[in-house]
Amino acid sequence: MSYCRQEGKDKIIFATKEDHETPSSAELVADDPDDPYEEQGLILPNGDINWNCPCLGGMASGPCGEQFKSAFSCFHYSTEEIKGSDCVDQFRAMQECMQKYPDLYPQEDENEEKSSKDFEATPVEASAAKEKTSS
Q: What are the Acidic residues biased-composition ranges (predicted)?
């Protein structure tokens, strides 16, 4: 005899051998590529941008969402030889908006940027010095 019981948030189902002998009557539904709730990735099958993609990290819905959408759309649909070179104004507007909200869009600290450049340059300088001494 099969039965179910609830234990907290869990539902435990006990099935008998007879329950499993009859084939399932469940029908599978084909995936709908236009289902807005289905995870599609950044670019939808029709080529449009999926503004709900978690990969955008909420940028499309923040206080600078419209500026972000404008800049990203321009870049995505750009046909220039250097992709996005026609989008400088949109990216500038997005950057200006983000600077108004430093708590939401933290800027790289100039000191951090400088020290990371020094760090990146150090191994190159060290290897160049080794080459000079070994030759």
A: 29-38
